[in-house]
């Protein structure tokens, strides 16, 4: 029986990390089109953040040769980007085992979702069995900072909210209990952040990512898709 894993890879050499770092208020999800040789096209979906800041970050990114906006729906934009580097060129300074990196592309795994952060990638993946997951996890543990958030069997039902990290759950629960989501609000972002002992900007990002995750798990599939 297969496994579903949610994990994060902290590695600032991964593609588009510089874009996420430049516009931390945006949520960036990434898919890779591997039918383009050694430089798979990037398809990035960006929610929130300044359109001008995002597109300036794409232009300034060292790992993007050129980019095109291919769709817009409300506060969400979709971009296609041509990479300036192959994965080997981009990660060669960070990863010693480039043969192992190439072998991962043929492993019994499918990466369903990649969320780009200022530190690396948060991912959701399906693995054929525990051996396939162990091979994948061991590689990234050797070459970067790998953190496993959740590991379940693919036959187990997943209720809405299971995709949230512990910190996101804590932020949502605390904000809710303090009345941050009430109308009118009974508390401020600063007060909730103080309760959690984090900065207001960190709390704001944590809440946005949690809300985006909940939308993806519940109502996002009902929305019309962005034009290709």
Automatic annotation (TrEMBL):
Designated name of the protein: DNA-binding protein
Coiled coil: none
Protein keywords: DNA-binding, Transcription, Transcription regulation
Molecular-function GO term, any one: DNA binding
Domain (HTH bat-type): residue spans on this chain: 164-215
Source organism: Haloarcula hispanica
Pfam families for the chain: HTH_10
Keyword Glycoprotein included in the entry's annotation: no
Entry keyword annotation includes Transcription regulation: yes
UniProt xrefs under InterPro entries: HTH_bacterioopsin
């Amino acid at each position: 029986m297969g496994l579903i894993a949610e994990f994060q890879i902290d590695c600032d050499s991964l593609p588009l990390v510089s874009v996420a770092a430049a516009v931390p208020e945006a949520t960036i999800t990434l898919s890779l089109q591997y039918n383009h040789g050694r430089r798979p096209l990037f398809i990035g979906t960006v929610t929130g953040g300044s359109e001008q800041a995002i597109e300036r970050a794409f232009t300034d990114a060292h790992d993007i040769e050129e980019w095109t906006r291919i769709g817009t729906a409300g506060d969400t934009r979709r971009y296609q980007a041509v990479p300036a580097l192959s994965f080997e060129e981009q990660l060669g300074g960070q990863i010693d085992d480039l043969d192992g990196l190439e072998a991962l592309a043929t492993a019994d795994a499918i990466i369903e979702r990649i969320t780009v952060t200022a530190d690396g990638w948060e991912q959701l993946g399906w693995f054929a069995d525990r051996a396939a997951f162990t091979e994948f996890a061991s590689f990234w543990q050797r070459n970067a900072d790998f953190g496993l958030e959740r590991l379940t069997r693919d036959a187990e039902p997943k209720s809405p909210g299971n995709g949230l990290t512990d910190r996101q759950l804590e932020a949502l629960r605390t904000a809710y209990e303090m009345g941050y989501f009430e109308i009118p609000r009974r508390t401020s972002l600063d007060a909730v952040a103080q309760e959690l002992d984090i900065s207001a900007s960190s709390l704001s990002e944590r809440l946005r990512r949690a809300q985006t995750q909940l939308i993806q798990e519940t109502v996002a599939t009902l929305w019309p898709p962005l034009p290709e």
